[in-house]
Amino acid sequence: MKVVITGSSGMVGQGVLQECIESDAVKEILLVNRISIKLSNPKIKEVLVENFFELDTAQTDLQGYDACYFCIGTSVLGKTEEVYSRITYELTVNFAEVFISHSPNSVFCYVTGQGTDSTEKGKGMWARVKGKTENTILNMGFKAAYMFRPNYIQPMKGVKSKTWYSLIFTFFSPIYLVLKHFLSLATNSENIGLAMIKLTEGKHPVTVFGK
């Protein structure tokens, strides 16, 4: 398979990338990043874009892929609904539209979060925006689209967060040994990557994973 990964500098994206590198099913990996992660591997090609709303320079590189694993995300803390919507909804949908126009027979996997509001009518601003994003992608016409709504994600295999969240992961590492037995509470970066690869290999009746 040939896959595209966005957000490979983040914790979730790093985990997905690692599983793609290790998987025999994945033959080519295109990383679309703002800043190079400077990782050399025979499977990897990296394309840099300054602005994800202006993808002209990357369009020809997005042709003929089997899947996009969209791992870009931002915290809602300190953001107005307008700003959060632009980063979460508009940016994601813009990329998905460009991707499907060049790889129409493809799968799109999107990492959202537990508590996402599919009705788009709840009180939680971030949950409404995430729900709107999910709904738009699910109705965009992909071969298949899958929404991942994890709660706590434990980084595995040396994956690290570059933000203050790394302190949380360090604190929860021992607790994760218990949390991992409760799928609604926790998963890890390895599981997310493996699930995306498996879903690309064969269509699944469930489109939203998590609550």
Task: Tell me about this structure.
The chain is α/β, with parallel strands linked by helices and 211 residues long. The protein has a single domain, classed as 3-Layer(aba) Sandwich (Rossmann fold). It is built from five helices and nine strands. The strands form two sheets. Strands 3-2-1-4-5-6-9 form a seven-stranded parallel sheet, sandwiched between helices. Strands 7-8 form a two-stranded parallel sheet. β7, α4 and β8 form a beta-alpha-beta unit. The longest helix has 22 residues. It starts with a strand and ends with a strand. The mean pLDDT is 89.
Question: Which structural class should the secondary elements be placed in?
Answer: alpha/beta
- Form type: globular
Number of helices: 5
Corresponding CATH superfamily: NAD(P)-binding Rossmann-like Domain
What's the alpha carbon Rg, rounded to whole Å? 16 Å
> Strand sequence of the main sheet, in spatial order?
3-2-1-4-5-6-9
Q: Assess the beta-strand content as a share of residues.
A: 15-25%
CATH topology, which one? Rossmann fold
